[in-house]
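Support reply, case 0932

Customer input (verbatim):
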Amino acid sequence: MVDPKFRYEYLPPKRLQETITRCPLVIQPIGLLEWHGDHNAVGLDGLAGQTICERVIERLGDGVLMPTCWIGTYGYIHYPGTVCYDGETAYRVYKNMFREFIKLGFRLVLLISGHGGKWQVRALERASADALKEMESSIKAPVQLLGFVYPKMTPGINVAHAGAVETSILWRIGKERGVDLVDPKKMRAGKQAITKFKLPDDATIEFPASEEPEQWTWPPDLRDYEACSPDVGEEMLKAFTDGIYEEISAYREELGL
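Our regenerated output:
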């Protein structure tokens, strides 16, 4: 677990301001409670984002880590276990986060999402651009707002939804925390029928039904321990942490932090 000195919710105002003055960097993990197969806990996205953010800030040695935000947009909204929000809601939440961080005096702001997809990326990018415009008069020194999905920082790694990489990461997190977050007995190969929810406003939901198939096809590497295991999860966590750390370090140097 991350050192308590980095956790925003543990800081009294005086120590918070001292941290912002010394290192005006804040990291906000984002996730979505979402179906990731019968073998994975629904909190996979947020737990992955949170763990990576914890490792990044420990390595940086300064700055502030926010509590994980579980609001995200589409989303396998019709699949079991998913708690999903429309794109406008996610956008407004992220924009308000950016605005509040600027208000507090942070100059390097990172919203790091464990949940991906074009709708999520659109909400993050739109929120950062609009927050900068709205808070322009309040900005006294250069500010960099970043909202991104963590695999984007390591483009050579293919992260399929609920596949070997995500499962391995969650498996490793569970081992670290002493919680059974992955059930290897429920891993499968081949097709699985999905029982989907029906929603009264299905006709107006942006997320197309074609992206939520009635059957899910699981690849064989999910049952290959060399491709899917806690050890693989540790390798993936290290790769993503390294990529984000390097990106943050470059922005810190650019901003003179």
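We compared this against your earlier run and they match. Two observations from our side: The chain is about 40% helix and 10% strand. The chain has a mean pLDDT of 94. Please reopen the case if you see a mismatch on your end.
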